[in-house]
Amino acid sequence: MCFVLISESMSAQVRLRLLPSVRCLFDEPIQVKVAGLRSKQVVTMRASSTDERGLVFNSSASYRADDRGEIDLKRDAALSGSYVGVEPMGLLRSLKADVLHKYFYKNRALEPFMVKLSVHDEEGRKLAEATNERRLIGDGVSRVPVKKGNIQGVLFIPPGEGPFPAVLDLCTIMSEKRASLLANKGFMVLALPVFIDKPNFERMNLDDFEEAVRFLQNQPKASSKGVGVISRSKGGDIALSLAAFVQGVEAVVWINGCSANVAIPLYYKNRQILSPLMFNLSKVLPTESGAKLVKYVLEDPLAEENQGSVIPIERADGQFLFVASEDDLNWDSKGYLDHMVERLKRHGKKNFESVTYPAAGHLLEPPYGPHCPSSFHETVRFPVVWGGEPKAHAAAELHLWKKMRDFLLAHLSCSAAHTQIL
């Protein structure tokens, strides 16, 4: 239990508690409770956080206290504000900047996600406040920068002797968030960006990513000869290509990607193995917010002229988890998922499972972070809409977070003793 009172303007009777503690991991929920209010008093709960680029994000919601002058966000409905209804973590999910099209950058594992929460009366006076420290890296997890050959990433190793399931986390732009959080759950994870600098549209070498697979296989604490791969967006087609062409990939989590090789010719062992599925930027559509809708800019991978870009996933021996958001406004992820499922079935393959989220958007991330409806796209160089009904998107992230871990654990070899602690 924790409460913080920092100025004379705040009521000595009002207490803001964050349970079970003010400190937790990024992917853990907290219970927010207020006590010491008047019976039926209406107050405003506020949250504020600053991202790694110095941009401030805020949210707020009004609540009415019960007969005892208490509010419990796990039980009580927000009356108005950034959201309405019962959302225990709504203040975090709804954090947004004052300017449009901003993504909350929280990608460095060593810096916690700090959220200031406060209670205000109807005149705006602050009654109480507390700070939630949400850590990305748990006690005992090792963070090891890796710069070896063509590998430029960060390796996260859980505490203990292992062995640990080994996972390659392919992030389009470098982020340590998902990798460090998975390491907290007992996985050894190498976070590796698809693009280190600006994309080279002339060629991409699958050999560079195979090098990362071999690096993980050779780690002394790795628990199996094979590795898992997690991917989203452009990383999705790289993950599929690894499964199809490279030995040792036992499990692939494909999230909101494409069934074909997107935009850049793919080479392996100095020969082109996949042609690029190209963009048609004339299909970009404007929206009222000023961000662009790019869902339809990719050419059809099923068209005859694009067959050379389609990834032959039927060659893969490993297992697939296909994840698609039906409100993905970046790519037609559900269509690509259906294409892959049909292709595998046609080849008599059963090494896959799939999950779809009807109202979620493109940016499925670890749970309890701010929802991002639109932001600047690093590749096309203008703001785009990502999609997702905020509450449903948050629920999808929570469901996927457990689903993904269970899938990787089921298909990556590890000892029985280790399985019990995950």
Summarize the structure.
With 422 residues, the protein is of the alpha/beta class. Helix content is 18%, strand content 30%. It starts with 14 loop residues before the first strand and ends with a helix.
Descriptive account of the structure:
The protein has 422 residues and is an alpha/beta fold. It has 2 domains: 15-135, Immunoglobulin-like (Sandwich), CATH 2.60.40.2240; 142-421, 3-Layer(aba) Sandwich (Rossmann fold), CATH 3.40.50.1820. It is built from 7 helices and 25 strands. It has helices at 90-93, 177-184, 206-217, 234-245, 333-346, 390-411, 416-421; strands at residues 15-19, 23-25, 31-35, 42-50, 56-64, 71-72, 80-81, 96-97, 113-120, 126-135, 142-148, 151-157, 166-171, 188-193, 204-205, 227-232, 249-255, 266-268, 271-274, 285-286, 292-293, 319-325, 352-357, 374-377, 382-385. The strands form 6 sheets. Strands 11-12-14-13-16-17-22-23 form an 8-stranded mixed beta sheet, sandwiched between helices. A hairpin with a 2-residue loop joins strand 11 (142-148) and strand 12 (151-157). The longest helix is centred in the last third of the chain and has 22 residues, at 390-411. The two termini are 27 Å apart.
